[in-house]
Amino acid sequence: MTDQRMTATRLATASVGEALDSAPDPLDGCLRMLLDAAGAADDLELPTAAVRETHADAIRRLGFPGDAYVLALVGGTGVGKSSLLNALAGVTVSPASARRPTTSQPIAWVPAAERDALAPLLGWLGVGDVREHAADDLGPVAILDLPDMDSVATEHRARVEALLPRVDAVAWVTDPEKYHDAVLHDDFLRAWLPRLARQAVVVNKADRLGPEDGRRIRRDLEADLARGQRAGDRSSVPVILTSAAPSSATGRTEAADRREAADRTGVTGSEPELAGLRHWLADGVAAKAIVRARVAATAVDLTLGLARDAGIDATRSATPFLDDKARAAAIEEATSAVLRAVDLPGLERQAEAATRALARARGTGPVGRLTSLLYRASGRATRVADPDAFLVRWRDRGPLSPAVEVLRDALAMPLRAASPAVRPVLAAALEPTELRKGLERAVDRAISGLGPLTPPTSRWWSVIGFLQTLATAGIALSAAWVVFWILGGPPASSVQVPVLGSVPSPFASLVGFLAAGYLLARLLGAHAGWVGRRWAQRLRDRVAATVQTEVSQRGLLPLDMLEDARLRLWTAASTMDRTCRRR
Q1: 327 and 432 in contact (C-beta within 8 Å)?
Q2: Coil, helix or strand for 109?
Q3: Beta-bridge partners for 60
Q4: Per residue, what are the HEC states of 117-155?
Q5: How far apart are CA 440 and CA 430, in angstroms?
Q6: Pairing state of beta strands 69-75 and 129-133?
Q7: Cis bond upstream, residue 101 (ω within 30)
Q8: Taking the CB of residue 374, how many other CB atoms lie within 10 A of it?
Q9: What is the DSSP code string of 50-81?
Q10: CA distance 98 to 568
């Protein structure tokens, strides 16, 4: 991942956040980003079924009519959830008993004015037992009394876990004996605190506590809840002390019991044991805002969960598996290994030989054209003077194993440092066969992108070819003259040659034309070699650059696909953490 790509990612993240802020309904944007995060997680082979199911539930929940939200009373065996609901109602809504478990199916207590509007929502939740009330001091809330989360009947806990993703708010009910219960804290609060915008911990049976014990339990729970919240989340979960136990059965007046409870718990009001809970239920929060905040909080938590599974910290800059420096070094070394297999020196020889062959065909006269034709017909030209065929046959000259091992060595440390969830897919991307195929495709693309490798030519070769034609004709005529003279033709004049003295003109003419042809051939060879070497060097540089570009861009394609998926997941998580958690 280059610095330019990182900068572009930060700009894209900022622009996505601005788009969410300015969208007609930013929550729709948050839900779309949740799907984007799921798509990126799919590419990393992370499980996303629960995320997609939650997204579908969110869309369905936002579509229900009505102005009430759904709050669930969730707690362990014997903490008094049913008693608490009955005390709120003033009548028996959910039967309470010493026999455990008591509640086996969820019971809904809903405002009478919202009964019809809530019917589709309660049907979706699978709640068939509905009781209504006419109270107007609790706000627009439908309260569900759920089975015990730690029930000996396993189907009860399963029912709680199935309903929790669909309710809008939760009152976690506990008591002085169970407020540190591991099931509550480890199995439920740890998972659900980040996903619920509205929730409270209700410590029932507070009438059994003295003032100092009540303050101590409140401090302990507030500390536990603060540790369980996500970093940067400033929202707080209130701890409410209540008492729903009937007191008249002891022979004392109910009013006296309430006064004593008020003295001991510090709760005042017409119903001291429930005043705090009633106040929290009716604090004026709009029901639709609670629903939307719940959906947004869940979307953020699920996205951040996917990011954590992928080893991504959404609060920090995105970091690739392989940093820029290590990637550049690995690509450079792998490219060198690939180019050794391609054999650039051999390509240069082929290019120069092809240039010389073209020069011979154009610059050596009739004899050169004939020898060039025989050269091509014999197949030698294809073996030693055809750079196109030479490059196509690159697989015959060397394996890519050294290049593959270079890449695998470079990625050994990132593989060990990767999160356990993505380590298998990363290891699959580094499988030697896949890396080799990627490098082979990169070399093939580089070669095919070069196009036909046509050797260069020169107009001087045509001039030399014309002069060679004249020299060839002169040689033929001189040879005929020599034969005619030897066979008794007319006497010929002589030419004075230094050192040799007097040489008959036929011989002098033949030697002269032969010398001219030789000099022209040497001149042609020298010029063709110079042109060929220049072209071979340019071709070598071009092939090296093209191969390096392809290996850089495509040689690590399996890894780059994973890097892209992690980058998309980081973008979604960091943007949602910054812009969606407050919806």
Answers
A1: no
A2: strand
A3: none
A4: HHHHHHHHHCCCEEEEECCCCCCCEEEEECCCCCCCCHH
A5: 15
A6: unpaired
A7: yes
A8: 11
A9: HHHHHHHHHHHHHT--SS-EEEEEEE-TTS-H
A10: 53
Whole-number Å distance between alpha carbons of 169 and 143: 9
C-alpha distances out from residue 84 to 144, 180, 278, 364, 577, Å: 11, 20, 11, 110, 36
Task: Render the burial of 284-317: b for 16+ CB within 10 Å, e for the rest.
Answer: ebebeebbbbbbbbbbbbbbbbbbebbbbebeee
How many other C-beta atoms can be found within 10 angstroms of the C-beta atom of residue 67? 13
Which residue's structure tokens are 């002269």?
A: 512
Pairing relationship of beta strands 107-111 and 199-203 according to DSSP bridges: unpaired
**Amino acid sitting at position 230:** R
Model pLDDT for residues 460-516, shown as the tens digit of each residue = 988 988 898 898 888 888 888 888 878 877 777 777 777 777 778 888 888 888 899
Three-state SS for 307? helix
Structure tokens at 374: 């025989």
69 forms bridges with which residues in the sheet? 141
pTM of the model: 0.72
Strands 494-497 and 501-504: antiparallel
Residue 226: pLDDT band (50, 70, 90) is confident
- Percent with pLDDT over 70 in the chain: 85
**For residue 34, what are its two tokens?**
């949740």
Q: Is the pLDDT of residue 19 over 70?
A: no
Segments making up each domain of the chain, as ranges:
54-309, 324-555
Calpha distance 342→399 (Å, rounded)? 9
Place of tokens 């990627």: 438
CATH 3.40.50.300, applies to 54-309 = yes
482 touches 507 (CB < 8 A)? yes
pLDDT in tens, 534-578: 999 999 998 888 888 888 877 788 888 899 999 999 999 999 988
As a whole number of angstroms, the distance between CA 407 and CA 579 comes to 39
In whole angstroms, what is the distance from residue 5 CA to residue 340 CA? 31
Q: pLDDT tens-digit profile of 243-285? A: 876 543 333 334 444 444 444 444 333 345 688 888 888 876 7
The mean per-residue pLDDT over the stretch 167-181 comes to 90
- Tokens 């699920």 found at: 302
What separation in angstroms does the CA of 69 have from each of 136, 142, 170, 287, 314? 14, 6, 11, 5, 31
The CA distances from residue 551 to 281, 319, 328, 400, 445, in Å, are 63, 22, 11, 12, 10
Cα distance between residue 237 and residue 134, in whole Å: 28
Residue type, 562: L
- Evaluate if residue 4 carries a pLDDT over 50: no
Residue position matching structure tokens 């579509």 = 63
Distance CA 149, CA 304 (A): 26
CA distance 303 to 311: 13
* 48-52 contacts at long range (C-beta below 8 A, 24 or more positions apart): 48/306, 50/302, 51/302, 51/306
